[in-house]
């Protein structure tokens, strides 16, 4: 029998997390140290040693066309690459400053034998959300899966000091743009198609430093539940994923996040005691977007290492 271990035993990098700051964001994956893991799953061999093994698709999204916001880096990048390995062509939206990350993501999608369609657009403008959907349709002629994933956050210790312009920017990026993307996308979606939204553990635990961000994530979970009921008669499923603490550029790019916050990110978070890697969350999106999730709608999947357990 295994002895309980005080430290996490894992093949994913965790103990060498370095303090780093990409303040002001958006952050870049290329600057994360150690690099995040996007495409490898942790398997345990017969000697009970964990190893990382490349994710192999099995055609779960064969010939589907997927549109992802915030798809250049982090969770969105992992979702795009795994979905490409499952047979889908991928459009993804990113901010112009993230061109270098977007190029790497496009290459990985193409390595999977699928087409990448990157778009540098700020989704805070409604016209850009419409342009993203129009451009995707022009390229692929169908829209089977929409992944509403882009978001931003800025820390504020006390609401008395909160910058209301930042609150508005956070709501515009995280939830209002989701309304716009979804409205324009739904016009092209058919029975069997689906939507997956990125919520957060912060929607369920709250976060005293991120009151505005957490509020947008709460809204996303309720948006998901309500829209799922509305769209079910049309055969369109709507779900969300609520990640916990994940090793992505969002963290070091979070304005006013001290450098040292990165050094311990997720390491003390019980019970798994480590941050998750983008690939470990992306698998939930594949489940929800594919026939594996055909009986699931209005649901939020909690992928958070157990720090908050839903009944
Ligand atoms: N990393 C975590 O610990 C964590 C935890 C819970 C939830 N999430 C959620 O996961 C999702 C993905 O975040 P991530 O952690 O992969 O970080 P990330 O920084 O890699 O991704 C965020 C993406 O949002 C995009 N974005 C932000 N503002 C935009 C705008 N105005 N227009 C277009 N794109 C814009 C950026 O291009 C970026 O790619 C987010 O919704 C985030 O809230 C992350």
Oligomeric assembly? single chain
Our count of helices gives 8
Q: The biggest beta sheet, please?
A: 7 strands, parallel
Q: How many domains make up the coordinates?
A: 1
Q: What is the CATH T-level topology?
A: Rossmann fold
The side-by-side strand order for the widest beta sheet comes to 5-4-3-6-7-8-9
Uncertain regions: pLDDT < 50 for 5+ in a row? none
Overall average residue pLDDT: 93
Instruction: Please name the fourth-level CATH homologous superfamily.
Output: NAD(P)-binding Rossmann-like Domain
Small molecules bound in the structure, each named once: nicotinamide-adenine-dinucleotide
CATH class: Alpha Beta
CATH architecture annotation name: 3-Layer(aba) Sandwich
Task: Give structural notes.
The chain has one domain (59-303): NAD(P)-binding Rossmann-like Domain (Rossmann fold, 3-Layer(aba) Sandwich). It has 8 helices and 9 strands. It starts with 39 loop residues before the first strand and ends in an 8-residue tail after the last strand. It has a 7-stranded parallel sheet with strand order 5-4-3-6-7-8-9, with helices on both faces. A two-stranded antiparallel sheet has the order 1-2. The protein has 311 residues and is α/β, with parallel strands linked by helices. The protein is globular. The protein is 34% helix and 15% strand. Residues 26-27, 69-70, 72-76, 93-95, 98, 122-124, 149-152, 173, 198, 200-201, 243, 245-246, 248-251 line the site of nicotinamide-adenine-dinucleotide (NAD). The site of nicotinamide-adenine-dinucleotide has 31 residues, from helix 1 and strand 4.
